[in-house]
Structures
1.
Amino acid sequence: MKMAVEPVTPGVVKVILDGRMDITGAAVIDLQFSAITGSNKGVVVDLTNVSFLASIGIRTLLLGAKAVQRRGGCFILLNPVDEVERVLEVMGVTDLMPIFKDTDAALAAASMQA
Amino acid sequence: MDEVYSITLRNDHAELERMVAWVDSVVARLRISADTAHALHLCLEEAVVNVVRYAFEPGTMHDVNIALWRDAKAIHAEVIDDGRAFDPLSLELPESPKDLQSAQVGGLGIKLMRSFAGCAAYRRVGTTNRLTLSFPVA
């Protein structure tokens, strides 16, 4: 699994994840993901290239979202593929954080609180 | 019953990558839908991660066996380990979260497994745990 971080404006970043968010993938990104969500107020997580999401990956997303929200920020998921979105729905995650399909709209929303 | 495919993994999370490749190869032979293949991948990931993490004394080496087969109605998977007796299906599922801050981050794997397998059953046979997961095929 790969993770890239694109700064958008001060305090706002787009995190681009790529690969399988399973036990192997989550182990690779967890530390960096937690550092990013612990230090930004607007975080858009681009899931376009995440082909698989297991419970360990949901844990990563939930912990990140909690950290951002606790500081009054905005954590947004962007463009999950159908299978990943179904996992998010079944686990109730879609009720806990916004999911956008459009990058510009997601970045605009994430920038509001920053 | 048709052919049974099987693989033996060590109780090590690094073995999960080998499992994923093996499931992909069996799925290709069984000609099942993408949705069923996804459910199978998801449930096996959760089941095996659970076994590797909780079934054994730390530092001990064990095998985890997986068998996959298909009949007219379903794809069946069985995960067998010789760890401590443990029925993952007996665990209480985390409640649906009301808000983000109160959302639990543990116990999610069992909920995923129960949601994505059409049917799940656990048996203790001798010194082994046997978890069977079935996925209906159209």
2.
Amino acid sequence: MKLTVNGAAHEVAVPDDMPLLWVLRDVIGLTGTKFGCGMAQCGACTVMIGDQAVRSCVRPVSTVGDRPITTIEGLKSQSGLHPVQQAWIDADVVQCGYCQSGQVMTAVALLGAKPHPTDKDIDAAFAGNICRCGTYQRIRTAVHLAADKMGGKT
Amino acid sequence: MSAVIDSGRRRFLTHSAGAAAGLIIGFNIAKSGTALAQAAPPKKPGLPPVNAYLSISPDNVITIQLAHSEMGQGIWTTLPMLLAEELDCDWTKMRMEHAPASIVYAHTAMGIQMTGGSTSTWSEFDRYRQVGAAARDLLLRAGAAQFKVPAAKCSTESGYVLYKDQRLSFGSLAAAAAKLPPPTRVKLKDPKDWKIIGKPTKRLDSPEKVTGEAEFGIDVRLPGLMTAVLARPPVFGGKAKSVDDSRAKAVPGVHAVVTVPSGVAVVAENFWAAKVGCDALKVDWDLGPGATIDTEALRQEYRNLAATPGLNAAVAGDISASESAKPVVAVDYELPFLAHAPMEPLNCTAKVGKDSAEVWIGTQFPGIDQGAAAETLGMKPEQVKINTTFLGGAFGRRATGSCHLIRETVAVAKAAGVPVKVVWTREDDIRGGYYRPQWFHRAVIHTDSSGLPRRWDHTVVGQSILANTPFASFAIKNGIDESSIEGTFNSPYVKKTPVHRVALHSPASPVPVLWWRSVGHSHTGFVMESLVDELAHAANQDPVDYRRKLLTESPRHAGALNLAAEKAGWGTPLPAGRARGIAVHESFGSWVAHVAEVSVENNRIRVHRVVVAIDCGICVNPEGVAAQMESCVVYGLSAALYGRITLKDGRVQQSNFHDYQVLRLQEMPVVETYVVPSTEKSGGAGEPGLPPIAPAVANAVYVLTKKRLRSLPLDLTQT
């Protein structure tokens, strides 16, 4: 099976029903995407397929097809951190950090669809992302900060 | 391998601790094998050995060994702040590592290497400053020797030793500094000269945590590493009687099926194969007595126990004198079992050889984990190397006296004969026990003519956390586990009441229990602050004014209370449908008051704003303290609004985040944190913000609905 992850092509020999999460982590070796619940309840496993945020822990790898996958490792470019990552640092968001790959990916997908999200948009986009350390207030701040910095550019 | 100097004992060692070559002031791992099966009494040493804590590379990178685990609380930033304050180094060139398991890194107050009890900052406040000051002294003397002037004529600034208009970098001086005798004493900076301590400082672990590069235990990768998922007994204490693993072994990628005391492990090439294999196992379990546990029955048992005499933890006045007056308050409070549910499910990786083993684990207890792994493997502690990774949340869950996770992992790795990463599923986590105990409180309180309590009779019932742990021998006194009643017997309200009694029952059960963020205060804070609110309303007095009357001899409680009330605009009008509730509680050496602004719609409780005031003594990093207050509010609200683990026929009825719900972003109140200025010794921050949130919300709900909710989670449909 062929997958395109962060712009790189991968040929993987895995069962069709293997969730994308475990293909990314255990087969391709991209461990930035996290396992939290295994049933699309917590969002730690969030990646983008095309421009959509998806829960990779319940997404059978065979359903991805040739659409490009972006993981947390794929956000950084040669020019440095993605503006969302920088906003996360500036707002001092992280605590334990375990859920933050999923939070950042959710933010990137949201800002792609809505460059100037309202608080209600943020509420809706992040409803599936749990943080037990309680960084929600700073996530909200960071999303607005990133939106301002990106100025509608994605 | 690089040669490093153990300056404390003047001899050379070698190590391969993963640090860059060119270490100059190196790490002392001479005693890294020394496990601490149980707590040793804290030593009163001279200066800590500098080279155990920091190294300086020729290119001026300062690498700091952290004696505490980073689990979100921010110690990855706070300890470097303490050290850098005295070292006078370049803040942008700091690199942190979790220290290996070694007695050198034993907690300065607890005597074992551990992270917990909101102690990391205050317990290291002197040690990491001393290390920084001692290193600075060495570098200054090395620089002075190169300048050929007395050290007193030199100074330091941002990673350089200065003499007139000349300067030498710390990196260029480190080799020479390492050859000098370390100072026997150092003079620490006067607080008025602090440049870092007390300044809001952003976290140093953000860059790696927003790029996915941070390595948590679950991310460890090794050549030939397999993943194990275990079938676990459906009830606590159950054992596998017989196993049919034929279907599991037929799953592609499954390498082995091994039975260990905690369950049946399917070892496979990746998590998914292990999970599919595990689901295909057929295990016949011997359930044992755990199959009868029922939380409803426990509630009744606790209620019955509360009517019988317990062990007295505190008594004042003639509590047994007959009392004819009707009590103002005679009520019961109840709180359920709670799972910690950190975002990173439990996991541990082990590579077991014939004469040695290496383990990777996100742990709060590296020292005793090392001893437990050695014991399980029949090795000596020094044969087991512990690598502490980042912890994906902990809240107490990664601090088990039983060391069950590392024991399980090394047993599976040894039996399977390959390096193994054991990964718990979320279901394993929610159903795996080590819960905050279920609690029952009964309080009978009489007041005097001014409405203040004159007789307070309080009984607490619940499992002891410390019983049957390595800490029991010194932590349980006269049958009383103080962690069961902290916040009651020493409550300022109880102490102010002339006649009082706090009694305790500690019934045992097969359900493993554990410290859960704020430990005993997680229940006593709710009960005490709800009770005092009941008394205030019974006396027709403003809840803030009423508390002030009881806190006349508790100035730090009063200080936090007053600051929170002032910043929240206590007494000023709110939008229709909203009310404020207040609570103040001391725990872990800090005093925290919350004012919660709450509304209720269709029996749904919504918290809009929380104003926090904390007196934590000297506040090393106000930014970190604010983050911990936000964190405590969220963690506490999850418990106040949703948290409940129940058992029926021994089976835990919850399994994942759909039925063990936690607060989500759309429910996040605005949290504002204010710090009471103080020059007192630092207190904790990771836990003290939690106890007052549930009662602050419940007290606001009472104002809105006139319903007094006396159990958690708060549920308006149950009254």
